[in-house]
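Re: [help] complex structure
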Amino acid sequence: MMDILSQLDFTFFLLASIGTLIGIIFGAIPGMTATMAVAVCLPLTYALGLEHGLSLLLGLYVGGISGGMVPAVLLNIPGTPSSITTTFDGYPMAQKGEGERALRVCVVASLVGGLISAAVLFLFAPLLAEFSIKFSYVEKFLIILLALTVIASMSNNMLVGIFSGAIGVWLSLIGTYSLSDGGNGNTRLMFDFMEPYLFEGFSLLPVLIGIFGISTILLEAESGVKSSLTGQKIKIGKEGGFSLSIFKGRLTNLVRSSFIGTFVGMLPGVGGSAASVLAYTQEKNLSRDSSEMGKGAPQGLIASESANNALTGGALIPLLSLGIPGDSTTAVLIGAFTLQGIQVGPLFIPENTDTWYIMMVALVAANIVMFLLMFYAIKYIARVVLVPKYLLYPLIVMMCVVGAYAINYGIMFDVWTLMIFGVLGYLVQKVGLEVAPLIIGFILGSSAEVYFVKSLESFGTLSIFFTKSPIAVVLWGLIAASVIFSIVMGLKSRTRRQLEMSQ
Amino acid sequence: MSNARLVKGIGVSAMMAAMALGSSYAMAVDGPLRGNVRVVIGSSSTGGDTYQNASIVVDELSEKLDLNMKVDAVGVSAAYNALQRDPRGNTLMIFHDQSYLGHLYGVQGYEDPFENYIIGPTIAINPGNAYLVPKDSPYQTLDDIIAAVGEGETVRVAIQPGGVSEIGYTALKNAIRILHPGAEENLVAVNTGSQSDKNQLLFDDQADLINGSVQANEQYTRLPEDDQKAMRFVWLTARHDTLAQANEEGLGQTDRETLLQFAEPNVQVTMGDDQNFAFDKEFFFLYNKDMDPAIVEQIDTALEEIYAEGEIQETQKRSFFIPDFMASSESQEYLRDKAERYEGIIESLQE
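Output below.
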């Protein structure tokens, strides 16, 4: 015990804070992610030693995931893939002049999500790891399918939404069914001359930034640059006020989304973006009034942000109790242990209790620092929107280009991807397709394919999706409920619209 | 609110990001290799043995050459692309036998490394490449498996196709073909990806045997038998003499003596003609085809000095790697021979 206390010195907490700050900056810059931040700082763990290194890296992780909310809310660009659902309600709120309020909701939700998942990690890690291996390919496919059902409930016009989602899935299948996923490594859905560029398909982040960020800028550019400051419309200070009462009646949402985030985080291979998408769907389906979601409702932000921060604790569960990283960032984080020659596997926690406690302290500290840094800095951060658009937009485009170029360590095609999807995002909105379902289809499509194919490969029959396990049956129940709910809601809103038309 | 303040804020953030990303420009006083050096690896994992090995060597090399060097886990195709673009020597690559095995198995994206790149010095061996069964498996040894397959039982092996993970499977299949002609059809590969996927197949009872490693699976072998996750080693593909060089303590709680039981000659995988299959996973440098030969020599010399000092061997052994330095000219010949040998095995099975 004394060993632990001696490790928890000033430097330890300073590193956690610096990590969180740098993480937030990485997360907030479109094209830079928590994963990158951790990868860049990984070699530092040599010099810092394991405990201090971990406090820095966990800070980067928590900060990086949280920072994504800033551009998501203010600029409609998800800073990290897992903040995509934050744009759905955050940006409309920012446009209404409530950017600051939206960000504060996000920060509080992030803190709660982070702490709940840390508590779950601390108390139940080995138990949950046991549970997580009950999820075979079949159940993982069903989880992704459940997340995909959000497409139906999220779109304004269900058929158009589903069509857009299908295009997204199709786009995600371009490239190879990778050898590292057990495929044959052959390219498909392209002409031969595209092979050098599209061998691994379109990279996720340039697509995201292009379709959200660049297309938003193109749409704005089309409407012409007005000399007036956009900020004049923004209510800052009391008018855009925030109080904890926003969370009144939303506790269920907050807690549910945090648990969904933790849960998805703990399933290796399902991916971070599925967490916030799933939490968002469930809020949409289960809340008493979800009619405002997608138009600027705080409840959407609460669901999205608490879930994506809860991912952190969740993804550490299989890492520390099975040696299997739960998401892409923890996959890099595992390097901190291997570099020090420490095995991470099912016996890691019992054999390294000191390190385990120290990690928990660092995780909680990082969450608190994230909250303090962001909650009080938001006032200033939110003023980004005060910058005249003719200055702001070129800056953003430049940052997006640099970020896209850097994301895979210097691939020029990623910049073209950014531009292609920027224009595509613009055109898609012009012809009346829906962007959000398209992008969710794109994000979830490739893992849906892998798990679907693997299930068939392993079991050889389609019926296995229904008969594999009680978990599968429960998931089918949830999928059915989600689909029925969207249909009912769709019909309701249609009759309402018809009523309004006839009046 | 002043835009000036905001601009300043953005400036500071940009600077911090730049500081985090970049690093100061270092210059070696002498030697043809100058500036910052990026060492790409053929694996995108920072938790794997390639990253760990590359880090150990690059750390020492960077000190010896007084250059700023950094390992980047970018994955196979990105690594080859980066290497091809840079004949100056500021991009180097570290990878292992996968580089030519991928080519021999005909995997897309793998060109012949002996034709397209300069093979640099070898640095280490990971003797941990292993095959495991569930702890409660009816198969006690690899011989049991070979016999069972020979009698017509289907045995499913989880591997990642096209490389180090597959070579052991190929050899096993070949051995069954020699001992029980025709029965090799009963040994079936379950193609999958990461280690966690392979483990999961074992937990789900979708595979009877999986490829793994001492590093990644040792803890699983120490779980009680009634644990769904418990596994047992049946085969380590490393050569006996290689494994015998490891630290006596082995890895985790499993000592060298125990591990040696799972390697040849205790475990026999015949290649015919009284020859036994064994495979050492070796790590080595790859250079751009047009890189200045003086740089090749500079790195060879530096590594020679590092290995002569003897400290790096301790670091490598602590992580269960076997130090294995061969200067470029020697390693080129050695690896070419090795590749030819395995080409024979792979071809004989594809007939």
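The two ends of chain A are 73 Å apart (CA to CA).
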